[in-house]
């Protein structure tokens, strides 16, 4: 290959290697099959590899196809998944819907054994994405886990919907980043791919502005939900009767924040059904943005009768407006975890913190049933120390306070671990039996 550049020689050698590997023991079964290809590799050949892998009974398949969109159809001939009846786990990453595009509309292609489906950075048709996505789920009659990363469902005409009676675990991570650096981090090439892609990544003009219109979850047997998105106009149907654990990172985009802060505009977005729909959870993780959505875009908050573990992520630009009501509405809460104690100081925090002196001596903390309080990423600043003492003074049923110091934080006045422990040990407590633990990880 004297006339080929070094990069082309490598790709040709790789394609020849792939052919030889699949030709060896051509009748022997395959359990796990993975193809990761960039542009420059013959897309027709890649399609042939996929068919051969499926014909040999592969049950765990990963397809990462970084081809330009105009070439994706060349590796997706109609029969590519005709032999996929043995699939149990399937991951498809990058580009268009690719290998699914033709298979979805064949009546004889059904993934009868598929239990785990992972779609990563897949562009589903903007105008008919809701139809295609629903068709895909309908062809997976025993699907138990669905992971969808970087899905662009904000343009789907009829809104976004996940409907499945068999799903037990669901992860939906939409493009809802606030800073361009986050977008670059999530969409940039991996280190191992950087030499091959070679194209500058451009942040789109609509970055940080697009949001879904309507979102529905019709998943009555779902046990675990991890959902990250901009807040939708409405959540028409939220059926999560079996939910045990939920992680929510739902926040307003730039336009929604401006509308929320305007005195002349009434925000039309409503996340009430989403929050009401998770009322059965036992473990709940909320980001600081989700806390603000609960405060600003929810008409009511349910009573979480089964909730025993609540985890809150903090941000110094986000307030704790919703925290007092959350604590009041969690009568069975046993463990409360804060990932940092920094937050935006407003009178909306109520008596959950000591940032502003409350007008009333009563406190949501005084009736809080929490027995275990954990504080991670603790910087031991004066404000943080004061807030921890506030917790100790107000929480009557507290049995354990565990604090993990932030290694990156510069402790004021060289306050050491032992000094933090000693200072808090001497603080007044509503619960005399509360055990104190301070560690430095």
TrEMBL record:
Domain FBD: 363-439
Protein name: FBD domain-containing protein
Pfam families found in the cross-reference section: LRR_At5g56370 (PF24758)
Signal peptide: none
Alphabetized SUPFAM superfamilies for the sequence: RNI-like (SSF52047)
Matching Gene3D superfamilies: Ribonuclease Inhibitor
């Amino acid at each position: 290959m004297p006339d080929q550049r070094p990069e082309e020689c490598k790709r040709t050698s790789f394609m020849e290697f792939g052919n030889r590997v699949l030709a060896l023991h051509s009748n022997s079964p395959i359990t796990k099959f993975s193809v990761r290809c960039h542009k420059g590799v013959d897309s027709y050949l890649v399609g042939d590899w996929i068919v051969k892998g499926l014909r040999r009974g592969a049950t765990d398949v990963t397809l990462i196809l970084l081809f330009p969109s105009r070439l994706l159809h060349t590796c997706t001939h109609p029969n590519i998944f005709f032999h996929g009846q043995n699939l149990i786990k399937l991951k498809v990453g990058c580009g268009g819907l690719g290998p699914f595009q033709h298979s979805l509309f064949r009546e004889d292609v059904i993934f009868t054994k598929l239990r785990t489906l992972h779609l990563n950075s897949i562009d589903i048709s903007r105008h008919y994405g809701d139809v295609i996505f629903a068709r895909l789920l309908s062809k997976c009659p025993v699907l138990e886990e669905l992971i969808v990363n970087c899905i662009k469902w904000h343009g789907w005409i009829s809104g976004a919907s996940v409907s499945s009676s068999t799903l037990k675990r669901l992860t939906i991570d939409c493009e809802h980043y606030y800073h361009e650096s986050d977008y670059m981090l999530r969409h940039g090439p991996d280190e191992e791919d950087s030499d091959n892609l070679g194209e500058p990544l451009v942040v789109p003009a609509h970055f940080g502005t697009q949001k879904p219109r309507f979102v529905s979850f019709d998943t009555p047997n779902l046990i675990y939900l991890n959902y990250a998105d901009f807040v939708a106009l409405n959540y028409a149907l939220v059926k999560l009767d079996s939910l045990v654990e939920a992680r929510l990172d739902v926040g307003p985009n730039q336009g929604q924040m401006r509308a929320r802060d305007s005195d002349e505009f009434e925000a039309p977005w409503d996340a009430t059904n989403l929050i009401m729909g998770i009322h059965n959870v036992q473990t709940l993780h909320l980001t600081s943005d989700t806390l603000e959505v609960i405060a600003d875009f929810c008409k009511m908050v349910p009573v979480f009768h089964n909730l025993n573990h609540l985890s809150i992520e903090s941000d110094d630009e986000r307030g704790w407006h919703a925290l007092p009501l959350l604590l009041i509405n969690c009568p069975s809460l046993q463990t409360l975890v804060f990932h940092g104690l920094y937050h935006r100081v407003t009178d909306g925090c109520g008596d959950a913190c000591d940032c502003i002196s409350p007008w009333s001596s009563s406190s949501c903390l005084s009736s809080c049933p929490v027995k275990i309080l954990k504080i991670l990423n603790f910087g031991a600043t004066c404000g943080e120390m004061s807030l921890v003492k506030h917790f100790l003074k107000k929480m009557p049923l507290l049995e354990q306070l565990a604090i993990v110091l932030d290694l990156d934080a510069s402790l004021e006045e060289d306050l050491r671990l032992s000094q933090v422990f000693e200072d808090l040990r001497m603080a007044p407590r509503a619960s005399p039996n509360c055990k104190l633990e301070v560690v430095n990880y």
